[in-house]
Amino acid sequence: MNKEAKLRKEILEKVQQYYDEVHKNNNEFIPGKTKISFAGRVYDQSEMTHLVDSSLDFWLTAGRYADEFEKRFAQWMQQKYCALVNSGSSANLVAFSALTSPKLKSRQLLPGDEVITVAAGFPTTVNPIVQNDLVPVFVDIEVETCNIDVSYLEQALSEKTKAVMLAHTLGNPFNLEAVSEFCRKHNLFLIEDCCDAVGSTYDGKMVGTFGDLATVSFYPAHHITMGEGGAVLTNRGTLHRNVLSFRDWGRDCFCGPGSDNTCGHRFDFQFGTLPQGYDHKYVYSHVGYNLKVSDMQASVGVAQLDKLPHFIEKRKENFVKLKAGLKKYEDYLILPEATPNSDPSWFGFMFSIKENDHFNRLDLVEHLEEERILTRQLFAGNLTRQPAYQGVKYRVVGDLKNTDYVMRNGIFIGVYPGIDDQRMDYMISSFERFFKKKGLV
Alpha-carbon distance 292 to 94, whole Å? Predict the structure, then answer.
């Protein structure tokens, strides 16, 4: 072992020692005092040593860890291509922008075209539609699944419809059979936002494999984390090239960071009115961005990949236990239902309060928060009611009554792998205390 390798080994051993001393046992639970988050990072010494190992290279942009992650994650998600970006929101922006490329010729999405989606969810599933000057068409959801009500699809269709962009809500797949068939029938692009749904399956197939493009987030709340980070996946080489271009400043060249002349024809082409032989590394075919991930982020993701199967199983286990514990309150709660033919990798446990004379959503939220159980609503609730969308051009199909119902009455709480049996039992007992206090049990 040379001097450099020996020194690196000593540093990484110290990092592991630091984890053991500072982080390892920092997980004590005191009922009523320790916060139970709706989501969070789960890690050990592996993530910390990977992170420091990457930092010692001082290769600050995407590098060896990014390459490893993209290859392994694409395989895990049953896709040919994976492009890392700096967030799940960026993944949505890049994926959607890839469909606006002139390289798609007659299928290019153009300003004024329409995209079917839902108003119930996270804003950055819809924002790329608006940012590219297309028109979102909002349809309603089902209360039990919080996913698109597919009975509205044909009604939402117009001669301007070019795509469908939907998220698998909190890990619960939307009706992929109906949506995929609708897109095939009308020659529409489908983007699956899988940011909350890594590992969910539909008809035995991984979500993300049904559409033209899929997106994922690696924010600390999600199934695996890089701190910040995201990815765009596809099985189509043309779309992958477009994704890389929009991610990498809009350039036409596909050389990786630090690479030159991968194609062997760097100075051979004529582009637009540029001089013959203009350096291909500085030819831009799209109005793009710089949304790459750093190798330090990717290194954490590589360590997390090894834990992903366990994380998914723990989420499913917590969901089953929580639903069984709350089943006795079904007179007052609309409990979540998995979409038929699906096996969700749950992000959270979403339920709605049935309207009654005894309590409302806020009453239950305040009780849970007082008992240190963190709650969240279904993100933006109804995007058409949000301040940012008051000047935005969109179309609504129907009255969005279920969207509004969930906005007023919906709550989700955590099922992430950091919630152990002790915490889960406390969460269930907290509901028991609430309903006893209201005289309902």
Answer: 11
- The answer to whether 88 and 124 are in contact (CB under 8 A) is yes
pLDDT in tens, 283-333: 899 999 999 999 999 999 999 999 999 999 999 999 999 999 999 999 999
Return d(Cα 31, Cα 86) in angstroms, integer: 37
222 is known as an active-site residue: yes
Sheet of 342-343: strands edge to edge? 205-206, 201-202, 342-343
| List 222, 240, 286, 367, catalytic entry | 222
Phi, psi of 201 (to 5 degrees): -130, 155
β-pair type (189-193, 213-217): parallel
Contacts of 409 (CB under 8 A, 6+ apart): 352, 353, 354, 355, 360, 361
| pLDDT tens-digit series, residues 369-378 | 999 999 999 9
CB of 372 closer than 8 Å to CB of 34: yes
Domains of the chain: 29-250+285-441 (3.40.640.10)
User: Which of the 8 DSSP states describes residue 356?
Assistant: -
* Widest pairwise Cα distance in the chain: 81
Look at residue 267 in the predicted model and tell me its pLDDT. 82
Tokens 């309207």, residue located: 355
Place of tokens 């009654």: 356
| The overall pTM is greater than 0.70 | yes
Nearest partner of 287 among 246, 328, 345, judged by Cα: 246
Q: What is the Cα–Cα distance from 276 to 184, expressed in whole angstroms? A: 42
Structure letter (DSSP) for residue 379: T
- The backbone region for 211, taken as left when phi is positive above 0, alpha when psi lies in -120 to 50, beta otherwise, is beta
pLDDT value at 255 more than 80: no
